[in-house]
């Protein structure tokens, strides 16, 4: 995959193919391992570590938003938030 990176990049940028065409021509790009490898190649950071650290950072804000809008989403959201409260332990 490293050898074909510039070829893939040029094709995607210049030709702007549909996602289905990219998936057909470069199926490995859609495997989780390859997505992580491509992300690392471009950014020099690990994708999953970055994702989980960002999730830890933004989760409280997202949950507050869900709580504020729970009435709009109905009983299922209220039940989900109650289950979350039951599982959360404060250290």
Notable traits:
0% strand; 91 residues; mainly alpha; elongated; single chain; 5 helices
Model description:
This protein has helices at 5-15, 19-25, 32-43, 47-73, 75-87. It has 91 residues and is mainly alpha-helical. The protein has 2 domains: 5-45, no CATH class; 49-87, no CATH class. Helix 4 (47-73) crosses helix 5 (75-87). The chain is elongated and about 50 Å long.
Spell out the blueprint of helices and strands.
Blueprint: H1 5-15, H2 19-25, H3 32-43, H4 47-73, H5 75-87
Helix pairs in contact: 4-5
Number of discrete helical segments: 5
Radius of gyration: 20 Å
Count of structural domains: 2
Helicity range? over 70%
Task: Quote the average pLDDT.
Answer: 86
Low-confidence stretches: none
% residues in beta strands: under 5%
Overall outline: elongated
Reading the helices and strands in chain order gives HHHHH
Tell me the distance between the termini: 45 Å
What structural category characterises the helix and strand content? mainly alpha
Number of strands: 0
Q: Tell me about the largest β-sheet.
A: none
Short description:
The chain has helices at residues 5-15, 19-25, 32-43, 47-73, 75-87.
């Amino acid at each position: 995959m490293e050898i074909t990176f510039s070829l893939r990049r040029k094709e995607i940028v210049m030709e702007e193919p549909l996602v289905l065409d990219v998936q057909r021509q470069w199926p490995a790009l859609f495997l989780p391992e390859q997505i992580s490898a491509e992300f690392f190649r471009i950014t020099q950071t690990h994708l999953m570590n970055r994702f989980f650290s960002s999730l830890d950072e933004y989760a409280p804000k997202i949950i507050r938003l869900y709580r504020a809008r729970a009435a709009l989403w109905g009983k299922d959201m209220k039940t989900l938030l109650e289950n979350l409260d039951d599982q959360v332990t404060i250290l």
